[in-house]
Amino acid sequence: MVAYARERGVRIVPEFDLPGHSSSWLPGYPSLGSGAGPFNIVREFGDPEGVFDPTKESTYRFLEAFVAEMVMKLFPDEYFHIGGDEVSPKIWNNERPVREFMKSHKIANGRRVASLLQ
């Protein structure tokens, strides 16, 4: 589809919504989550409880590998969209390791943590 579109002058820019909407990732990768778990796929509108843990190096390695595989191989464009909206910082603001991470990195609140994962 991407090649077909490119041949016709259409650019497909994928969006992988990060770090918002990450609750759908965490049932399969619970070690990347912040908060108590267990993590479930959210099937209704609302404020999901699951969010990536920005204090773990494994989170960044996972996302780097994901971007390398999904974006760079499947969508050979110089751009992709990460959403970046609809991030609820309430879990980050209530997690001691994340609060310590914010303090050591001079981050005022959980909303700023979201920008690190983007």
Radius of gyration: 16 Å
Average pLDDT taken over every residue: 82
H/E series: HEEHHHH
Structure classification? mainly alpha
SS strand fraction: under 5%
Largest sheet: 2 strands, antiparallel
Describe the structure.
With 118 residues, the protein is mostly helical. It has one domain (15-116). The chain is 38% helix and 3% strand. It contains 5 helices and 2 strands. The protein has helices spanning 2-7, 57-74, 90-94, 96-104, 110-116; strands spanning 33-34, 51-52. A two-stranded antiparallel ribbon has the order 1-2. The mean pLDDT is 82.
Summarize the structure.
With 118 residues, the chain is mainly alpha-helical. It has one domain. The protein contains 5 helices and 2 strands, in the order αββαααα.
List the helices and strands and how they pair.
Blueprint: H1 2-7, E1 33-34, E2 51-52, H2 57-74, H3 90-94, H4 96-104, H5 110-116
Antiparallel strand pairs: 1-2
Keywords:
two-stranded antiparallel sheet, mainly alpha, 118 residues, 3% strand
